[in-house]
Structure formats: structure tokens, C-alpha cells
Amino acid sequence: MEAAAAGRQRALLRQVLGWRLAAAVAWSVLLLPVCTAAFVLLSGVQPLRPLRWLSDSFDDLCTSHVIFCILLMSVVILVISVFNAEFYAVVPSIPCSRLALIGKIIHPQQVIHSVAHAVMGMLVAWCAAVMTKGRFQFLAVPCTISESLDDAVPQMCLNEYHLFFLLSGAFMGYCYSLLYLINNMNYLPFPIIQQYKYLRFRRSLPLLIKHSCVESLYSVRNFCVAYYFFGYIPKMWISTTMDLRIDSKLHPLDTLSGLLDLSLFYHAWLCGVFLLVTWYIAWLFFKIYATETHRFPVQPTFAEETDQCLPKILNSNPPLIIKFLALQDLMLLSQYSPVRRQEVFSLSQPGGHPHNWTAISRECLSLLTDLTQRLIAQQEAAAANGRAKQQVGEMKVSPQTPGAAGAEDIPFQLQSSPALNCKAGILDLSSPWHGKVQSPLIVRRGPKLWTSGSGLQMNGSHHESFPVLSVARVGSEAVQPSFIYTWLQNKQEQIKNFLSRRVLIMYFFSKHPEASIQAVFSDAQMHIWALEGLSHLVAASFTEDQFGVVQTTLPAILNTLLTLQEVVDRHFKLPHVSSKPPRSSGSLVDTSYKTLRFALRASLKTALYRITTVFGEHLNAVQVSTEHKKRLQQFLEYKE
Amino acid sequence: MCSLALFPPPPPPGAVTLCEFNNALLCGRRGEPLPLDFQSLLAALPALTLPEDGLKGPGRPESGAQPFLHHREALWKRVLCAWRDGGLCGLLKEIVSAEEEGLQWAKTALSCVLTACRWLSSLHGSILPHLSLTSEDMIAAFSQAVDWAGCSVRAFAWHPHTSKFAVALLDDSVRVYNSSSATIPSLKHRLQRNVAAVAWKPLCASILAVACQSCVLVWHLDPTSLSTRPSSGCAQVLSYPGHSPVTSLAWAPSGKLLLSASPVDTAMLVWDVSTENCVQLQWFGGGGVTFLAWSPDGSKVLAATPSAVFKVWEAQMWTCEKWPTIKGRCQTGCWSPDGSRLLFTVLGESVIYSLSFSEYRGDMQGQVGGSKTASIVADLSETTFEMPYGEERIGGAVQSMVWDPTGERLAVIIRGDPSAVETQTVVAVFRIRNSPVFELLPCGFLRGEQSAEPQLIAFHPCFEKGALLTVCWSTGTISHIPFFFLSSRVPYGSPGRSPAVVTASSSVREQPLFSEL
């Protein structure tokens, strides 16, 4: 049964994403000859003889080796696209400490990514070297070992320029992969406005080229430094394995004077720009195609389409990208399409149940309740940090929230959600009360301190703490901590205390509060769409809902939104939480995931106002708790 | 077609228009109580006078070139300052005019560059003349206010849901008046200079966007706060290189996005204000965007350019259609409440054009759906009224135009011909009839106090008994003039608007329009 469901979902993913990936690859391959032509033109630049330059470049373009290079690079683009498609994420993973970042870099998956990109980079550099011609073209060049001019024996020597090119290509590929990871470039940001793909591409193209040029400049500079120090190693290795001599007449490149060759620098830079532009174009196309809207039917027209219709997809547990696309579609239909809204409000034919609306509203509400609970847990962690001698019993969440019932599940949630691994990071290792705590509350939180990829889990505290966790949770008041347990705790605290005084360790372990907050809201885009979709649908229901299906869920919706509003308000009052979004740089690298929480706050308020504006005084008839009623009244008077 | 000759004669001097009642404009002395018990409706609205001398002159830092005492800064400092103030040309000018020794060759070279720059910019300016204006002149030229540079009130905006309005004043401050509270917050910010427009965020309690010379400021005001001077920390600064001065703002009616436009920038910016991200909507041609109007149903946006063409963007996929005008640039425009009709005026012509759009269904992605040509619905050319005390000449080009939320009244500021002495700037009000054909009917002229000329007009977004027009006069007075009538349609933004009326008006759209042009 489960296998069948998984198979269905894979089929759905293939159906929705497959052709998009194909189109993205096709477009990036189609643009490859254009990039190649530009590269050939620029690499053979002769400013003093423009006509000659143009005619030479044109002749070069039609030669067989350029065409072969284009074919080879198409394969490279294909591989890059496969990597893009394998590594993309709609929810960014944000490393909360430096150690976590290092952990990500040496993760096997990332190592494969880096090695593959280095190899691809070398291939592109080889193509670039072949197309540049001149002294870069071949690895082995004939040379004469001249003892005397007469018995000059033609021999093969190593062409260091070619080697420099290849290595610089590999270096660029590796840098690309590293920056891809560090800048979270696998994150798919959804655009704030819908636009046609061509326009989106055109808008990003200047940025892309500028970014590639700058990036390539830095890479070449760094590579020159690296080559200056370590260049002799690959040179010796290649020359011995391939039995090539080193031309003593030529100037060696791993010296200062050798590297100060302007033409070499220009060509290496141009090769880097070429590499980055073609790869970024593939990446950009993938991004544009993957985040394009997909229209899911609300009501299946045929029986076999049942799995693809919106309510069904929202309620099943599809791959995240499908869920995102479905929520985006929900937001769009609720805002722009009266016809499809009508389908949402319709009743099922035999039976007369509002299945569509029930499914959609249930999923949106469960998403929002989830977020509420997560935020409550995080606030509780932050609050406990401030008050040292807190008792477990005092740790209470506001009674009317649905999250209160699930308070005991919170530790589990913390463990299960990867994005949240570092949420307890607000617990600062260096805070003054750290050594002397015995409270089970802190104990319970202990293991979470070490979850973000930390190597210290190996020291054993991790294994012991799991039973502790359950002990603390099952009977937090009744069960007295056993002796061994206390002793272990003491030891653990001592170790932590000892470690926290070491500067180097602190450097790696200190958690950035901003990063932990970003991690909590990393999937907030879903919630924003759920909010917008729900509020638009509810607002439209005032005039369009003939059967009153929305009215039955209105109290639940209002309750959820108001509770979330309270929790979000409280979140923004926490210390460490900046109230303003950081400046976005306007570069190619998208940092929109850093500001999702502000977008969530704004759209939550707008959603509430949208409902209160349309319903007005009628909302007084809706059953909500008195506290929420007061809150609603404030919204009705525009005083929130 | 409606013309000014059909209008009832303007009220005699000394009388002030009080309200519209029983299809007629009533006049009287200022402050006279209204004839019926409607007085209570207006009692809460703050009518006020902001005289010019009460406001301090704009206190702005002098440019680095004219300090209080004659004191020469170091050359690099002056160069930096010139770069900040005047860009590349300013920098070159500063270096060329520098008195320092030992820069002779550099000066000679740079003066050549400067000459080339000037020549290029004059070439550019001859194609797009507005680019050679200074930014203050540019704002004055493209602002909706009649006399932006000289009058004490520079911009005005009603809150879309409550009785609260914001006024931008000559001294670069913005004041917020609320009918239900006595505190009057006065907003000041270092970057808030030369305010050209203010706009409240819809579906929100108190977020105000202010278009300034160098940026857009978004003020987050706490509606329950009693503070009269909110700190500048409450303001978000939205700036983008090359996007200044900002002359027009428009919020999406869904409250999600903010559009900003500058006559210098060919792109208009779509801001997601909460995250400060922006998307450029590039459309070359026209040389910039001067005026924005988002249709109340949220489906379309009018964007006027400084040249003789304007665009209508469709707000889902953001594609646009352009309409070239015959004579001049589009000065102002306004949308019908259901977004199906656009009225606009062109600089230098004294007529109102109407452009109708096919009904927006949301499923036709990326189509604006406008009709091919605009039709003339009103002729506002100069007309002479014979009055007992002499003759009055009224008519000319339209400065700004607003359509009330019920869709039944249209108020227009008609600017007299500046060369003629006799003509005056007046507010003319039209009634609108939607069936059987779209038609403008005369309602009357509004008269303020003696020697007061209208400066800005705006309709209250949710007045219950008809429509309420707020007029800012050149004397600094802000007065509210109610129009009492029974509307067949409830204001768009308020609860309980009925869908039946929308369908009724949609049938009107199928009717052929006037064929004359």
C-alpha cells in the first residue's frame, strides 16, 4: 500500500517536474552556442585589427573542434542540470554554527558534488583552451632540448599554460560547488509576482553576467595564489606520469614573474566567466522552470485524475516541491479565479458534502497550527534561557492555544524536524548559569544542544540522554532523578563548562541567533500561501459561497489565525529578534529565505484584516472565545 | 458628451459650497450648519487650516559647496560631496573648478570630458526634455497638486478603511489626522524631503508609504500610540539606485505589493514591503513613469510616462498594453470601482477620455483586454458664464481627477490657462450614469473661500450617505464637502457590496462607445 503511494507520488513528481527539467536543459543547451560564440570572439580579441579579428573568429566558429567542444559542453550542462535537479530544496537548510557548516562541506553528498563539479570544470577549461588556441591548445608541445643547435632532438614537452588552464577550470568548478553550498543556491525562491519565463530570464541575465565576471575575477586571483605555492606538485606529477619534459627555455609559471602574465590572466578569467555563465544559465533556467505555477484541477474530470487534484494533493504527503506548487496554485486560484473558487465551494454530487473545501481548509489549518506549536516551543526554549531557576511546572503555554495540549510532544517535534535542529541554539553555552543547573527542564533540553551535526555526540552523552528524555517527559514531577543520572548530568555539565571556555571550540560551536530564527521560519513560504489562500477564499465566500460551506469552518479559521497572530507577536518581542529585515543585496544570490518571517507577519495581519473587512459586524455572531472576540474587535476598529 | 456649458453657473463669490443635496449644490457661509441632521456625520471629521507661515521653511542641510562661513574643505572631501550631490557631472565640475595647484593636466583632460558629458546630456535632454529638470522641478511638474512648490499642502491621502488621513506639508513633515483621536502624529525623517505622494496600505491599520526625493519611506505607526513624534526607527527605507525622485505610489488593493515610480527610471518597482525585496518591471520607451493608479479591483495598473504614451499593466502576469496619445503626456487618470473603465486626461487637451476594458475574469492570463481607442466623454474647453457681477471664464486642462468609491461622482480639478488672466482653477463635479450608456452629467462647480484655489482633491473611501470629497485649498484649508445621494452600489472596500450590481454594469460594457475622437 505504502509502496503504491510512493510510486504514485514519484509518478506525479515526474509528471509535474519532468518536462520542466527537460525544457530547462533544452534551453540552456540551446544558449550554449551563443555563449561559445561570444567566448571565441572575446578570446581572440585584436583591438588593432578589428576586421581581421572578426573574420578570424568567424572562421574559428565553424571549425570541427569548436563544434566538438560544443557537443562536449552540452554533456557537461546536462550533468550540471542533473545535479541541480538532485540537490534543489524548497526549504533551505541553514547551518546554525560554523561547525555545522563544516559538517555540511565534508558531507559525502557534498563531496561528490564538489568532485563532479571540479571534473566538469576541467572539461570546460579543456574546451576553452582548445578554442582559445595559440599557446594554450595542447598539453604536450614539441620542443628541442638544446645541448647544441646541431643535434636538436625533437621531443615532447609539457605545456604549462595548458596545465594552468585545466587546473584553474577544476578550481573554478570546486569554487562554484562550494559557493553553491554556502550561499544556499540550491534553494528555490518563489517569485513575489508572477511573470512570464522570458521576462524573468531577461531580468536576471544582466545580474548573472555581472555576478559571473566578479566571481571569476576572485577565483582567478585565488587560484594564482594557490598555484604560486602548490603549482609544482601537479606539474611534476604530470610530467613524470606522462613522460613529458619541462622546457627549460620557457619561464616557469609558478613564479611571481610567470604569473604576472596579463594575457594568461585575461584568458583564465575569460574561461572562468564562460564556465560560470553557462552553468549559472542552466541553474537559472532550472529555477525559473521549477518555480513556475502549475495548475492543479480542483475537481477531477476523469477518474484517473483523482490523484492530481488539489485537495487530494494537499492532504496526501507529496514531495515538498509538489506541496509548494499546490499551495501556490491555491493562493492564485483564491485570488484571481472566480470559476475555480466556485469549484472549491461546491458540494459533492451524490451526498452533498463540501469535500473540496473541507480538505483544503483542513490542510491549511493544520499547517498553521503546526507553525504555532513550533513557535511556542521555541519561545519556551528562549524564555527558559532567561530564567535560570525555573521549575518544570511553571513552564506553561497559554491555555487556550491548541498547542498546549501537545506540549508533551514538543521534544519529539524538535527532534524530528531537521530545520529545527538548532532552535535550541538560543541556549548559549557561555551564559553564566550554565554550570550550576540541575533542573530537569534544562536536562531535558541538554541533548538538543548537541544535535546540529556536532561531533561531540560521540562522547556518550547522547546515548544516555535519550532515556533521560523519556524519563523527564513521562513523569516530570513524580520520578526523582536517579543517582547515576545525576552523576552523568554533572559530568556532562562539567564537560560542557570545560569546553565552553576554550576559545577555538566556542568559535565553532557558538550559534548565531539570527540563523536559528531563520531556521525556524525556513519553510514559512508554505504558511504564507496557506494564509493568503484561506483568507482570500473566506473573503470571497461572503458573496460567492452559495451553500454556506465556509461558515462551518469560520470559527476554527479565526481561532487559528488569532492564536498564530498572538504567538508571532510574542516571537517578535523576544530578545535577539530584529524587527526589521536585513537589506537585500540585489545580487544573483537570493537571500529571501532570511526575511520570510517578516513576510509571514505581514501576510498574517493582512489575512485577518481581509476577513474582518469583508465580514464586518457579522463576525460578532461567530463563536470564538472572549479573548479572541476582543482581539477581533480591535481588528474591526483598525487598531491592531 | 458633456461640456462645461451645460453646467449650472458657479456660485457667487463669497459663498462656499457646503454640500450636494437633492441633486443640487448648496452654498452658504463657511461653517454654516448643514440643512439636515447630516451635520453629525461630519462633526468628527477634522476640517483644518494649515497656513503657510505657520510652517517653518524646509530646514535642509546646505550643499557642501556653500557653507555658512567660507571655508574650503579638502579637495577629496569636496569631490566626494559633489559626487553625492550631483553625480558624475557634479564631480567633474568640482574638479575642473578646483583652485588647487598641480592639477593642470588633469583639469584640462577632465574639462574635455565634462564638455563631452554636457553635450551628451543635452542630446539626451532633447529627446527626453524632462531629464534636464532638477528633481524638485520634476516633482512639481509631475505631481498631482496644482501648485506643488508653493502651497503648504503637498500631498493628501485618506486611509482606505477608516476616517483618518495623512497630509504632507511644505516643511517636509507628514501629519496624520484621525477623526476618533486627538493626537496628531507628525512624521519627520532625515530622508523625508520633497514629498510628492503619500499612500496608506490597504487591509492594514496604520502603514503609510511616503514618496520622497531619494527613496520611499514606509512608516509603521501604532494606531493606539499617543506619541506625536514617532521616531525615525518606525520607518522602513526603500531605495533603489537610479530610482529617484519618486513621484507616485500605488498599493495593491490586496495590500501585498507596493508600486513606486520615478520619471527618471524606465522601470517601475514592485516592492514586497515586508521583506524589502523589489522586482523591476522594465519597459523601455517613454523615459520613465510619472503617475500610477491601481484599479480598485486590483486587476490593472495605469502607468503614465513623460512622453506621449501611457501603459496599462495587468497585475497578474504583469504584461502591459500601451496607448499612444496624440498631443501630450497623460496627466492623470482614475479607475471605475469595478476596474472596467479608465478615465484619463492628456496634458494640453481640455477633454476627458474614457477607455473601457473587457471584464476581468482571471482566467485570461496576461491580457489587458483594453479597447482599441479611447472615446471622449467630456469637453472642458473654456466657457464664459455671464453672471450679474460680471463674467467668469472657466475651463482648460485637467490637473487631477478622482472617482468616488460608489462610482457615481467624478471630481476634476480644471486648471485655467496660465497665460490668460481671467480663467481660474476650479473643481468641477460630474454625475456618472452607467446605463444605458456610460455618460458624464454635470453636477456643478465647487467654490471655496475668497481667493482660495483648489490644490488637491480626494474622496473619502467609505462614506455611508453618498460620497465625501475632501479639497485641500491653496490657503492651507482642508474642507470636506459631502454629496448626499442614494447609491445603487455600496463602496467597494466596505462590507456587504453586492455582486448583482457588478453584473448589471457589465452588460453596459458591451454597448458601443462614442465613435468620435
Give a structural overview:
The complex is a heterodimer of chains A (640) and B (517). With 640 residues, chain A is an all-alpha fold. Helices cover 65% and strands 2% of the residues of chain A. Residues 388-479 of chain A have low confidence and may be disordered. The radius of gyration of chain A is 30 Å and the shape is globular. The two termini of chain A are 49 Å apart. In chain A, α2 packs across α3 (50-61). In chain A, strands 1-2-3 form a 3-stranded mixed β-sheet. Among the domains of chain A are: 1-143 and 156-285, no CATH class; 347-380 and 515-637, no CATH class. Chain B has a 5-stranded mixed β-sheet with strand order 1-24-23-22-21, with no helix packed on it. Mean pLDDT of chain B is 83; it is low at 58-65 and 491-517. In chain B, α2 (75-96) crosses α3 (104-127). Chain B has 517 residues and is mainly beta. Chain B starts with a strand and ends in a 9-residue tail after the last helix. In chain B, a hairpin with a 5-residue loop joins β17 (291-294) and β18 (300-304). Chain B contains 5 helices and 33 strands. The radius of gyration of chain B is 24 Å and the shape is globular. The interface between A and B is large, with 46 and 40 residues. Chain A: Belongs to the NDC1 family. Chain A: Its main location: nucleus. Chain A: Keywords: Membrane, mRNA transport, Nuclear pore complex, Nucleus, Protein transport, Translocation, Transmembrane, Transmembrane helix, Transport.
List the helices and strands and how they pair.
The complex is a heterodimer of chains A (640) and B (517).
Chain A: H1 2-30, H2 32-43, H3 50-61, H4 64-87, H5 98-105, H6 108-132, E1 140-145, E2 153-158, H7 160-182, H8 197-230, H9 232-241, E3 245-246, H10 256-259, H11 262-290, H12 310-315, H13 320-336, H14 338-345, H15 355-386, H16 402-405, H17 410-416, H18 440-445, H19 461-474, H20 483-500, H21 503-509, H22 513-520, H23 524-544, H24 549-572, H25 596-615, H26 626-636
Parallel strand pairs in A: 2-3
Antiparallel strand pairs in A: 1-2
Helix pairs in contact in A: 1-4, 1-11, 2-3, 2-11, 4-6, 4-11, 6-7, 6-11, 7-8, 7-11, 8-11, 13-23, 14-23, 15-23, 15-24, 23-24, 23-25, 24-25
Chain B: E1 2-3, E2 16-21, E3 24-28, H1 39-43, E4 48-49, H2 75-96, H3 104-127, H4 135-142, E5 153-158, E6 164-169, E7 174-178, E8 186-187, E9 197-200, E10 207-211, E11 216-220, E12 235-238, E13 248-251, E14 258-261, E15 267-272, E16 277-282, E17 291-294, E18 300-304, E19 309-314, E20 320-324, E21 330-335, E22 341-346, E23 351-356, E24 375-379, E25 383-387, E26 390-394, E27 397-403, E28 409-415, E29 426-433, E30 439-446, E31 454-459, E32 466-473, E33 477-484, H5 499-508
Parallel strand pairs in B: 1-24
Antiparallel strand pairs in B: 2-3, 4-33, 5-6, 6-7, 7-8, 9-10, 10-11, 11-12, 13-14, 14-15, 15-16, 17-18, 18-19, 19-20, 21-22, 22-23, 23-24, 25-26, 27-28, 28-29, 29-30, 31-32, 32-33
Helix pairs in contact in B: 2-3
